[in-house]
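cron nightly-structures :: item 1 of 1
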Amino acid sequence: MGRAASRTGQIGLGSLLVLLVAAVVVPIGTVSAIPPRPLASPAGALLVTFNIQVDAGAADYVQRAAQAAIASNQDLVIVMNTPGGLLGNMQQIVTSIQDVQNHGLAVYTFVPPVALAASAGSYIALATNAIYMGSGSIIGPSTPFIVGGDPVEQQHVQNAMVAYIRSLAEKNGYNVAAAVDMAANNTAYSALQAASLGLVNGTLETLPAFLTAVGLGSATVTPYDEPLYDRFLSFISDPTVDGLFILVGVIALVLDLFHRTLFLSVIAVIFIALGFLGAQVIGASVVGILILIIAAALVILEVKAGHGFFAVTGIALGLAGTYLLAYNVAYSPSPYGVTQYVLLGGTGAVLVVAFLYLTRIRHALMAQPKLIDPGRILNMTGRATTDLVPGKDGVANVGAEEWTAQSDQFIPKGSLIRVTGFADGKIQVTIDSGEGPQPPAANEPSAAPPSPP
């Protein structure tokens, strides 16, 4: 009897070990490291296609989707493929996800095959109730970057983000050590690595399989497309775009001084306004904005100087200001890579060459003789091309030519004027009262005075 009892105990222990091994050794693609949360409502789910960078537009997009999910009592599904972006906007997105969860609903993340949940995207994924990844996809690295920040600032932000990613992993039941490693040591994991570590729930290859795994296989899943306004916000949330908009807008203003057209003026105002709006959206550095303003002043000063030095210096400062727009702004990853450097360098080179070419043309035109002898335009009439203000140079059209004009009285643009003198390459004019001797036509030189008898 004792042997029988002992043998029975051995069989029971062996069976238990087999069951434990069988429970552990199961294909990763079919098992969740963390049991998925059941569907909160039979109403279904809204699907957000997060194939974008983490920026102001993305934050507004997810917030809109979150509010729509809450209003319709639906879960939220995020199909993610993002390289990361602004940490401030990432925190806004995590807050929107938390808002959905606070209403008793769930948020799930699916990273399709060969997609990214990188940098700021990894924090967003870890804020959700379940994460599944396709083959070839990655999660992390999650270390933040501070453009222009010193080591103390970098460490300060990194410590904060390590604690933040730890809290997200703890809250939603993911592997805390692996999550912390992404932020502390700039580590990234493949789908298989993340699943084996319990950093994500598992690996799945298709969206239908993912929806089934999280309990949404038979539910209605409605796509929630990104609004056009949010796409616009994302476009101007790029510091490279903002800086180049401001710089190109200033160049257009200067060109308008050479060739006055309403089109160039409108383009210049729009570009400058968009650039400063984008700088405000990303919380751009005041240093970068000030350098861009100085660059604009130098480029405009080139109109007076005419030798090209101020223009080249202004363009160089404009590129530096563009880079410094992101100064001390927290990103993950850095907003500047090879593409941005090539774009900045290429644009700067084109602007420098174009400005030097225009300067050369200007000198050539100024060297040409006037069609009308300046000594023969006295008493000729014409029109004020610009407002003529005492003490300042303006422009007047006399004899079908543009002249630098001065006046001792204010003369509104478009007024009929008469030439009273010429000195230092500038004409002196007054308002033509229409009295006295008739002046010659604007396109004809004055008649020669009669010879004495």
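cron nightly-structures :: done
The CA atoms of residues 122 and 449 lie 88 Å apart.
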